[in-house]
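Module 6 notes. Inverse folding takes a fixed backbone as the condition and produces residue identities as the prediction. Think of it as a translation problem where the source language is geometry and the target language is the twenty amino acids. Below is one complete input and output pair. Work through it position by position during the lab.
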């Protein structure tokens, strides 16, 4: 059975552009509840750890630099079928391929600066939520 939690980041491009509020509004209107949330900033080392699965990819170094280039918002979200429904809401990795009305179609600047992150599995949603939030911050 699909889990009911996912993890998201509003990435540096969207935060810097002042789109955090509009993106959170879309997330809430799509039926997701915010379980935990904070504004923070990754160091290049922490960005590297978060995206470690991509360390052999050609874009990894740039991705770590970009993800540590400014503040982000990290959040744990709750909804039935959370992982899949959230990935539908955000759209394809490359905004050029993202469906109309998706968060990335509306707000992403490029395949790298693509506005938001969404977990790709229930297992990674838990790992990523635990990466950012302590047990006491995950009580809701
Ligand atoms: P995310 O994990 O951030 O939700 P995703 O699951 O859609 O995105 P991944 O394949 O996991 O895509 O890639 C992680 C991130 O790496 C992308 O969101 C994007 O910021 C960056 N990225 C992916 N592919 C490329 C690429 N070809 N060139 C530059 N950056 C890329
Ligand atoms: Mg991914």
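Target side of the pair, the amino acids:
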């Amino acid at each position: 059975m699909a889990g009911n939690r996912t993890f998201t980041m509003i990435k540096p491009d969207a935060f810097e552009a002042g789109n955090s509020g509009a993106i959170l509004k879309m997330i809430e209107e799509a039926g997701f509840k915010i379980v935990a949330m904070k504004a923070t900033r990754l160091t290049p080392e922490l960005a590297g750890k978060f995206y470690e699965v991509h360390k052999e990819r050609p874009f990894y170094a740039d991705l770590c630099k970009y993800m540590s280039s400014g503040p982000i918002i990290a959040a744990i979200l709750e909804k039935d079928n959370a992982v899949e429904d959230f990935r539908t809401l955000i759209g394809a990795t490359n905004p050029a391929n993202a469906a109309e009305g998706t968060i990335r179609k509306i707000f992403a600047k490029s395949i790298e600066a693509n506005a938001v992150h969404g977990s790709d599995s229930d297992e990674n949603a838990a790992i990523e939520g635990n990466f950012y939030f302590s047990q006491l911050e995950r009580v809701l």
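Reference fact for the lab report: The first strand starts at residue 5 and ends at 10.
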